Amino acid sequence: MSGLFSTFNIAKRGMEVQQKAIDVTSHNIANANTAGYSRQRANIETTRPQSLGGMEAGQLGTGAQVSTVDRIRDTFLDYQVRNETSISGQYSTRDNFLSQIEDVFTEPSDTGISSLMGKFFDSWQQLSKQPQSSNARTVVVQQTLALTDALNHTYTQLKDLKNNAQSLIKNTVTDMNSTLNQIGELNKEIISVKNAGDTPNDLMDKRDLLIDQLSSKFNLSIDKKAFEGINLKPADVNGMKAPELVKADGDTQVARFSYISSMEKDPTDDSGTTYKITYYKLGNMDSENNKQTITLTNVSPDQAKEIEETRVIWSNSDGVATKADGYPLKDGSTVDVQELKLFSPTAGEVKGNITIQKDIDNYIDQVNKLAKSIAFTVNAVHSGMSSTTTNGFPDKDYMPLFVNKSVANYSVNGQIINLDDTLKNESEITAGNITVNKEILNDVMKLKTKTRDSNFAYADQNTVDGEGDGARALAIAQLKNNLLDIQDVGTTVNSRADLFDMSKGKAVLKDNGLTIENNNNGTTLEAYFKDSIDKLGVQAQEATRMVTNQQQLLDSLNQTKDSVSGVSLDEEMANLVQFQHAYSANAKVISTVDELLDVVVNGLKK
């Protein structure tokens, strides 16, 4: 029945409702600067009305109640932000490393490889004018050494950058696994709280914040389940049949990631298609107990390169590598390369690290091609021999200018003691091991500069040409403008003989080695290197542009997201005043009812 006590209860409920609304507003204000917090709203609804019955037909309201406390969140905006964050993570990583690669090459500058190549050929030009001058010869040798030192330094720095990228991948793997474990635990708590009938808004905010952070590592996919639970997996499952990283059903058998620390060819396999990989479970290298090995068979060169650059593999929750069906690969097992599942997302920091390693490998390959081309051509003209050995006299190149420093050995007086091995391994010259023959460093008069030096093992044996003959020095200087098949070095060109193979349409060495006929399909040394630097510049600009564009897009999306989910102190203060007045009004109703009850109880006595 309606009456004063019913009115009293309505007012009491009203005060409780406003008190809860004030609590929610206070919580919003307290977390205005909390990362990942979504503002909350108390949903107020009427309580079940009272039927009057009898002569008083109809229903009488019984007040209000807080039905739920909801967080304000737009799931589509979340999806957009996470998707763009993955792309931003990829290009931020690329931009960082590409700028470091630019610093390695330092082009254009007076100390860069391009400038040193120019000085190298210019020094030979000057030597051709005064070949008898020991000073001019010293300048040539020192400029040559400066060039090889620059190539060595560039190679080493690029290798260090690649190692840094791989270390970053290892750290990323451990971070991803740790974040996934936290998300999994929060997922369980959220389901438990929701199942008990409560709304775990703050726990869901924490989970979403971790998911936002994880999205910078790789692009992910989320399936919502009952009781606010989620299933989380990468957007690119790479053929995995059980790719879930977080599950809502409480199943602890979830996928994780491990890190390949090394990869080596099996020396017992002559085919060169068997590799032994070493990986650490969950990327944790703090203990050797986490170390695992697997032997892979039927590995092609492209697959070997992909594994070496990717480094991240799918594993189970314990970190043991698995096949596509989730079956673990036991430590020490031998499997076909197809059984090992690499994790290669299409976006995120992991993708950025994988692609930047490919770029670094390409630039290492290009400086190696440059070093080989310089060594092959200059050694060929310097000796007059299109290969390291010949059927004529001399029977070999007794005084190569460029040598492989990892092979060449010298006696106490500075003479090569393993010339045959040194010549044989000229084909293995790279930017990392190219250097100047110490015999020539110690005695610059051993440089070959004359027309018929090609007919003699050593320069001092040539008594035919005059002291002023600098024809061979001039020929080396003119290599600067020769068109060479540099792009094929390392593939179809692996030695001097390959570079000057007439049957394959390569360049031709003639006139005692003084002339190299241009290869119309080739390019100059300077142009080849400049093309590489130009490509690097374009890649760096693209990465910087993408970072800028993605940042602007993310700023816009986050601004929209904040307008929906963020806390506005002005709005909360206005709400606080509104709830305060409502609370006061309900209190006034109670005060009025109290006065009326006083009239009923005490006033009727008078």
TrEMBL record:
Family indicated by similarity: Belongs to the flagella basal body rod proteins family.
Q: Which residues form the Flagellar basal body rod protein N-terminal domain?
A: 9-37
State one Pfam family annotation.
FlgK_D1
Name of the gene: flgK
Q: Which organism is it from?
A: Clostridium folliculivorans
Name its cellular compartments. Bacterial flagellum; Secreted
Q: Is this entry keyworded Secreted?
A: yes
GO MF annotations in UniProt: structural molecule activity
Q: Which GO terms describe its biological process?
A: bacterial-type flagellum assembly
Q: Where is the Flagellar basal-body/hook protein C-terminal domain?
A: 564-601
Record's protein name: Flagellar hook-associated protein 1
Provide a GO CC annotation, any one. Answer: extracellular region
Enumerate the spans annotated as Flagellar hook-associated protein FlgK helical domain: 98-254
What UniProt keywords apply to this chain's record, in alphabetical order? Bacterial flagellum, Cell projection, Cilium, Flagellum, Secreted
Taxonomy, top ranks, is:
Bacteria, Bacillati, Bacillota, Clostridia, Eubacteriales
